[in-house]
């Protein structure tokens, strides 16, 4: 494999504390060495969550009030946008022509019964697009700027992490092994109230670095201070669908404004690597008035709606108590399902809910590890797949996972269903890989993403197959789902640009990312502790 990045990555003027995150010199890279679900809730049992969210909304309203007149589009504190000091190189402006040769190709899977593989293949990348992916003997003539030897590796579409809260990397391991009420009210909400732009930027950089390492090329996120996360996506070269998490308890709908501002500023930005969703938090953390406004905004801006749905038994019971309907039925009543809905979790569903999700084409964002860690339950994925539901995979936030390694979700998705149903035939490797790749790409709104085919966006990874845990390879489909590890990823490419290769990051400096993340995490926890002591 040739050196990482034949061009020199962006030089930036040091106008901000974050300028140093972006490399000015390329580094030499070598080829890799060939608790149970909760009981039914009672009236008022959901209140502890709502009170915590109300307190969080109050602190957020104070923050947004301070930004009035700026359209919520504030720059990073003490910073201006990064300035390019010279004309971009071919690699930077997306004009690189790359040949990946001598590789085992997995071109992608949608509805196939088995995962397809093509030995001795070649992938040709022209700018941001795939020009060819198939047998090497049939590859067209192609003058490449860089040739990558893929011997011993598998080329496949990049992974899509379809539900996460990336800046929560700063909250890694906080509140572990607590019950849900204590986790939210003692560990999460009191800390999140003290988030700053700097903290969110540092957490976003850390999360993006972690995802690139493990082969994730795109992700779907809802959180706060989203200008900071959008800037991190733009500068790193990552692809993302971003939404400002909206809560509303007083029918003011004030928290919707920053989400609309995010759409107007960032949708289709950064060469269309950034797209924006509407992100009402959940049925329980919003009002009917707010959700009707979300429906109107979805019609106006033609963007998807990202929302937590029936994550816990408390969510399910609380909705029945408040609305007389399950969360999916309530969203259907309000007309939200007439639009593209990305429904996170969907753990507690009736048969009628599953039929509704399938009929409406709702994309389910399955987060098995988070659901287990928080003892939320096991989503009925096997039943949903049988009914024709669209299933994708996500990690959720690091605080309830503890990492952003989607390969762990890939292994657990089929295993949970087999163990829960006592049927080893449910959820095939092909269905699992589709959930981790093409299904997520489609849900993000990209027509040409998630497969390695001519004309598709060049988001791909190289997976090193030489490890002991991959040997012998008696069944490649089974190895890919049950044996592969995130650490096997040797190269991550987004939009035709190599962002990670052989332990090296092309746009991020790991030392500075880690240093700033540690500093911001310490400051965040210190602010929360001082606020708690002052009460």
Descriptive notes:
About 35% of the residues lie in helices and about 20% in strands. With about 525 residues, it is of the alpha/beta class. α1 packs parallel to α2, α3 packs across α17 and α14 crosses α16. It starts with about 45 loop residues before the first helix and ends with a helix.
Structure keywords:
five-stranded parallel sheet; 535 residues; disordered N terminus; alpha/beta
Radius of gyration: 22 Å
Q: What structural class do the secondary elements suggest? A: alpha/beta
Mean pLDDT: 88
Shape: globular
Oligomer class = single chain
* Low-pLDDT residue intervals, each spanning 5 or more residues: 1-43, 66-87
Helix count from the secondary structure assignment: 17
Largest sheet: 9 strands, mixed
In total, the number of strands is: 18
- In terms of DSSP E residues, the strand content is 15-25%
How far is the first residue's CA from the last residue's CA?
59 Å
Helical fraction: 25-40%
Helices and strands, with pairings:
Blueprint: H1 47-65, E1 97-105, E2 118-126, E3 129-135, E4 146-149, E5 153-157, E6 159-164, H2 180-192, H3 197-213, E7 216-223, H4 226-236, E8 239-246, H5 256-266, H6 269-272, E9 274-276, E10 279-280, H7 288-301, E11 305-309, H8 313-323, H9 327-333, E12 341-345, H10 351-359, E13 363-366, H11 368-373, H12 381-387, E14 390-393, H13 406-421, H14 429-436, H15 438-443, E15 460-464, H16 476-483, E16 489-494, E17 497-501, E18 504-505, H17 510-534
Parallel strand pairs: 1-4, 1-5, 6-7, 7-8, 8-9, 8-10, 11-12, 12-13, 13-14
Antiparallel strand pairs: 1-2, 2-3, 5-15, 15-16, 16-17, 17-18
